[in-house]
Design a protein that fits this description.
The structure holds two protein chains of two kinds.
Chain A (H helix, E strand, L loop, with lengths): L1 H5 L9 H27 L4 H4 L9 E3 L1 E2 L8 E7 L5 E10 L2 E6 L2 E9 L3 E3 L1 E3 L4 H4 L1 H4 L2 H32 L5 H10 L9 H10 L6 H5 L6 H12 L4 H8 L4 H12 L1 H17 L2 H6 L8 H9 L6 H33 L3
Antiparallel strand pairs in A: 1-8, 2-3, 3-4, 3-7, 4-5, 5-6
Helix pairs in contact in A: 6-10, 6-13, 11-12, 13-16, 15-16
Chain B lengths: L5 H27 L4 H28 L17 H7 L13 H33 L5 H13 L2 H12 L4 H8 L11 H29 L3 H9 L4 H29 L3 H6 L11 H11 L5 H33 L1
Helix pairs in contact in B: 2-13, 3-13, 4-8, 4-10, 4-12, 5-8, 8-10, 10-13, 12-13
The chains are: A alpha+beta, B mainly alpha.
């Protein structure tokens, strides 16, 4: 244990501390990804498979076959016949304890089988209907739109407002600059949970209750964003600005044409953060948006999981869709996120 | 048919938007010169901070000392310390059932217990994970990502993932049954629900702290370890004398951030257990939310007073941690 805690670099041979290391990491892989993998697998199970206990690992559905002369595909069962042989038969219909079955190869020969003599034949099948039926089942499209709207609009405004403030704080010398900077940083110490009640009043006085803008406006001035962009802009040489001023460029032009393009890497980091913040927001939207047609995906998920009869197959599919954007960020932009956390120390 | 050139469309849209936004900036500069320009650039941010942070902060104070169920401050009768007195009206503050607002005190003690356990365990596991990742492992970026992934998930998704696993017909019970046990209702037993709430919240946030600690470990100069090796220092001694002291600044940052976040835990727990069974996993933010927004009569005053108590706790926490950090610096000097 001690050797493992302290040694930072192995020396090429695999000793027990290396075994511990990889054991620990593999356990971590199982614990961290396992639950998400289980969610995704489960979301492809049919309504009947999802309430099975014990659950099967992979999504399984009853194998189906088209029987000549019948419209819909029929489920296939393995049947033990009175002479002891087993055959795979399709069930045409079932009355009480007796089921009428047929061999798909010989559709004319009908067999009557007691239902306790048959077991369903199952195969790997993805119940994609959980996803395709979502749109009709709930106001799913509406929730998705609300979430996307809030995320995109709030991120654009955040980038604009925060970069403007960062520009002022990094490229001008004026009385009160330090005070304003500290004031903005101090809002980091005021978590939204503290001002929940009065913010509700402010938003309702502005007529923004049950409006997506009621979620957007309070969120767009992020101290983290101002701080992140200011630190980056401080590294840009002031000579660039002086040169532009000599060319009679207006202050807005300098900000828009010179500083902003050069700040692109930091803006990208803030954009990723903002997308994740807004997409994942819960408590504030929960307070502001009480009408179900204004729900974001997160609120809709919360509302449906609280229903008396939870339709897990749809709920799980919706959960998977909700985690798609952040998973894409994780897969392709992880470098930027970790870099942002390292430079600002905030999430 | 040609596909629209999205890049050019977006550029045109941005240019058009800029032409609208720049109007006041040009007008002010023409009229008053460069002097007020920084304030104009700051204005949108400051207005939003003013309206949605500083103004609410003031109103919150006023709310805390007024009663009634009206939302508008001028319609609320001033009641002085009544809200705070109601919250603190207890026979014995350590026994919530002797309190007038017993749920408030249950929430406080739950939050305290949760914060201590969650922060301690999470920082412990984050340190271990960071140490493991700091070794010469193949594919470090991948392994780091494994622990980081849950950090990006929304609290609602985190809660639903675990609710699905922990439910009666869930996969955990399938494992329990396969091992010869009986299925168990994990979230309807108070102490188990509390345990799982701690576990899930560690699962969801650990990667963030691991990342900060790993950055701290990688910043430790390698020659210090070489020097320790030359002196034949035992691995444990090297850890105590080199790794731990140099990691300490990061460790303190991690403790502060984790504690401040733990005290405000709400979303995951609210979706996972709803605060139950009973009030076993009701924390302080949920109490504020329930009092202010879920009850038939919305007691904004009481909710605001409770958030003052939470704010006080957060301030104390920050000061204690800053003092700790200051002491340590002084000792090292």
């Amino acid at each position: 244990m001690i050797g493992f805690l302290t040694r930072t670099r192995g020396r090429g041979r695999l000793d027990w501390t290396d075994w511990f290391t990889y054991g620990y990491l593999t356990l971590g892989l199982f614990l961290m990804f396992g639950p998400v993998a289980w969610l995704v697998l489960s979301s492809f199970k049919t309504e009947s498979a999802i309430i099975e206990f014990p659950p099967s690992l992979l999504p399984m559905g009853t194998k189906q076959v088209v029987v000549a002369g019948e419209g819909k595909p029929k489920p296939i069962y393995r049947v033990t016949l009175p002479d002891g042989t087993t055959r795979e038969l399709a069930e045409l219909r079932r009355i009480g304890l007796v089921s009428t079955m047929v061999d798909p190869a010989h559709p004319d020969e009908l067999l009557r089988v007691p239902i306790d003599r048959r077991t369903p034949v199952r195969e790997f099948r993805l119940a994609t209907e959980n996803y395709t039926e979502l749109a009709g089942k709930f106001d799913f499209g509406q929730y998705l739109w609300n979430s996307v709207f809030i995320t995109v609009v709030a991120t654009i405004i955040t980038l604009l407002f925060n970069s403007m403030a960062a520009f002022a704080l990094s490229k001008y010398r004026f009385a009160g600059r330090q005070t304003v900077f500290l004031l903005i940083l101090s809002t980091l110490m005021v978590p939204p949970t503290i001002v929940l009640v009065p913010n509700f009043l402010v938003v309702s006085e502005l007529g923004l209750l049950n409006s997506l803008w009621g979620v957007i406006w309070p969120a767009v001035a992020t101290p983290t964003g101002v701080f992140l962009l200011r630190q980056y802009m401080l590294t840009l040489p002031d000579e660039l600005l002086e040169a532009a001023r000599l060319d009679h460029a207006s202050e807005w032009r300098i900000y828009w044409r010179i500083v902003l393009p050069l700040t692109a890497p930091a803006l990208a980091v803030l954009a990723i953060f903002s997308v994740m913040w807004r997409w994942n927001d819960f408590l504030w939207p929960l307070v502001v948006l009480s009408k179900s047609e204004k729900f974001t995906l997160q609120l809709a998920l919360n509302a449906f999981q609280g229903d008396l009869v939870t339709q897990w197959n749809y709920l799980l599919a919706m959960t998977v869709i909700t985690l798609v954007p952040v998973t894409l960020v994780f897969a392709f932009l992880q470098k930027f996120v970790t870099q942002g956390i390292a430079s600002a120390g905030v999430k | 048919m040609t596909a629209p050139n999205w890049k050019r469309l977006a550029a045109a849209a941005v240019a058009a938007a800029s032409r609208v936004v720049e109007v006041p900036f040009h007008a002010v500069q023409r009229a008053f010169g460069v002097g007020p320009m920084p304030w104009l650039f700051l204005a949108p941010n400051l207005v939003i901070f003013g309206v949605f942070t500083f103004l609410p902060l003031l109103i919150n104070f006023y709310y805390a000392f007024t009663g009634g169920a009206a939302l508008y401050p001028s319609e609320r009768p001033f009641t002085g310390m009544e809200n705070l007195a109601t919250l603190f009206d207890c026979g014995n503050h350590f026994d919530p059932s002797t309190c007038r607002k017993d749920l408030f005190w249950r929430a406080i003690w739950n939050t305290a217990k949760f914060s201590v356990l969650q922060v301690t365990l999470m920082v412990l596991f984050s340190v271990i994970t960071a140490l493991v990742l700091n070794r010469k492992v193949i594919g470090r970026g991948f392994w780091r990502g494994v622990y980081f992934y849950p950090v990006l998930l929304s609290p609602v998704v985190v809660a639903l993932i675990w609710k699905w696993i922990l439910q009666r017909e869930g996969v955990l019970n399938a494992i329990v049954v396969a091992a010869g046990g009986a299925p168990f209702e994990w979230l309807t037993s108070g102490s188990w629900a509390f345990t799982w709430v701690i576990f899930v919240s560690i699962w969801a946030h650990m990667g963030f702290y691991t990342l900060i600690l790993l950055a701290g470990l990688q910043a430790i100069p390698k020659d210090l370890y070489e020097a320790a090796q030359m002196d034949h220092a035992s691995p444990w001694r090297t850890f105590r004398r080199v790794t731990l002291p140099l990691l300490m600044p990061n460790l303190l940052v991690v403790f502060v951030l984790a504690a401040i976040r733990a005290v405000q835990t709400f979303d995951e727990v609210f979706v996972l257990t709803g605060g139950g069974p009973g009030s076993a996993t009701t924390f302080i933010v949920q109490f504020i939310y329930q009092t202010g927004f879920m009850e038939q009569i919305r007691l904004y005053g009481l909710a605001a007073a409770s958030s003052l108590v939470l704010a006080a706790a957060l301030i104390v926490l920050t000061l204690v941690q800053l003092r700790l950090a200051g002491n340590r610096d002084a000792k090292q000097r």
